[in-house]
Amino acid sequence: MIRKPLRPLASILHARSAGENPDQIERANLRERHEEMRNKGRARAEGRLLIMGALFAGAFLTVGARMAVVSMSEATEPRTSYAGSRIQAERADIVDRKGRILATNLETHSIYAHPHEMIDPAFAAQKLAEIFPDLVAEKLERRFKDGRKFYWVKKKISPEQKQAVHDIGEPGLLFGRREMRLYPNGRLAAHILGGASFGEEDVHDAELVGVAGVEKFFDDALRDPANGDKALTLSIDLTVQTAAERVLWGGMKLMNAKGASSVLMDAHTGEIVSMVSLPDFDPNNRPNPPVQGQAADSPLFNRAVQGLYELGSTFKIFTAAQSMELGLANPETKINTAGPLRWGKFKIRDFRNYGAQLTVTKVIVKSSNIGTARMAQVIGAARQQDFLKQLGFFDPTPVELVEAKGAQPLLPKNWSELSTMTISYGHGMSASPLHLAAGYAAIANGGTKVVPTILKQDAVVKGERVMSVASAEASRLMLRKVVSEGTASFGEVPGYAVGGKTGTADKPLESGRGYYEDKVIATFAAMFPAHDPKYVLILSLDEPVETSGDEPRRTAGWTAVPVAAEMITRVAPLLGLRPEVEPAPLADITLTSN
Amino acid sequence: MRMVVFVLAAGMVIGLSVWAYQENYRTQAMIGETERLQREIGEARARLAVLKAEWAYLNRPDRLRDLTEINYNDMQLLPLRPDQFGRIEQVAFPSNDAPITFENAVEVSSEEAKP
Fold first, then answer.
1. Out of A84, A217, A312, A383, which could bridge A505 as a Cys pair, Cβ 3.0 to 4.6 Å?
2. What ipTM does this complex have?
3. What is the CATH classification number for the domain harbouring A386?
């Protein structure tokens, strides 16, 4: 580049001759040159700014456009990841504690009709009625011809039926995919599983929704696609449950009872190994809830969880245990049992007259109402309430079944001294057999609270202590004596050292005033082996009558106890319990100085 | 010199585009293959679920109980009872003596059948 000289000779000479200052020319030129440089620099900077601006705008526009695309476009399954193929089942399986299937899904089809597309509705209706005996041809034909555009024919069909319908060759009969809940074991554990039905439906698919039991309690978890391949493991043991149902059913028939229930619980973990309520139902084909009569008579009613009964003399051991826990008595303390015990207008009687005095052990063994009422009088209402509350008799059981929440034990509104006395032998408050099982488990495991659960537990969680080890042990010895020499002598199972307490409670009248003369609930609450209890069994029969003798016998010792003994005989080997000789009680050693 | 650089660059562009083209098609083929496999896995899982359900159904306690009753003559299966538990001491040791051999044995079991 040729720069313009600051002092061009011609101009300088000209200025000199004119007598002007030639420096002025130089300054003017210098200024001009500076201005030129400045303009150039500015233009360059502006250009750079423009490019940078364009770059940034481009970057932001790209990000924005990408966001818009992501937010507006339909989500697509990732095609190349492994995760896509994992989920097949729409609802997770339910298995027992050893992994055997209790509930699973099966792919089936549903049939629906588009009557306007049908060629020969009469023929199709007739053929359908042949394939499905529960459909009526005339009714179907009327449905096909009354002008509707859509009609569900059948919700669940088998592959053979599908083929048969296919063979009709009617273009107006269409199939939709259905995932069906299958309970392969039929009636087994029906009350625990509950059942499932279709929720939102459409011709292509339908969602499965739990309607009762664990199916409903864990509905969200079972439906969660993330859990599709993880089965829900229950604490139920399939073989034990089968044996228990079989024995209980036989016992119910033999004892002419109208209903029965049993709960077998692990005394340490609170796991329910088997829970039966009879009559039962088939969860594959769950009946509708009853619209008339008593809900408690419906097969859907879970007697073990929902049934609130006065549990009778089985409560006596709690009174005795608390009395020993508080230091008010020991097993050999004499209790006044002279009867009848009067309280205002109310009289407390015993089944027989047991004389003027009995030891605490004998009160339990003979099942003396008067004796326990006297013990409860000393304990007092407040302390009795605290104790029963600690054992869980004041709240619904926290077991994972939807029905459990509704089973709030019935307590007296005003806990008077009379209530204290009657509750001490199990009258005046109602609780479910499951409550009783949890209470007995607390005695069985050495005095810590047990939370009943239907899920398999990995480890024993020690609950809060409700009584000392010594009181629990003394109570267990009493329960053992009830079987070896008391009211539950039919409960003896060689090798398993059963300990337990019978309870026969009169059924309250439906009107709520008074009791039936000849209707009872017979309960046997047991634990085995009594010297080191592993399991607690509660068995109760509703309105049993044993008629082998001269007059009908209704007491639990004649009805519930033999059934429970048979159940323990059948179930204990299945639980892996080896029969063993009961350790003899050690003779007391008195230390004397030498 | 410049010419060489141009030719080399052009060659590289052609080579890379051929490679990218091939990779693209291989990827597509692989995705197709994966999808086919996943469909297969899905079908296999569905089949497995059905087989498991059938297994559970065939092994349901009711059916097994009926089968043991039907086949009682051959199998003689009964529910497990507590008295069936044994101790290892109750099992006899195999004897070291040679098995007893009979000479000129007469079969008597069929004699009873004679009238």
1. A312
2. 0.72
3. 3.40.710.10
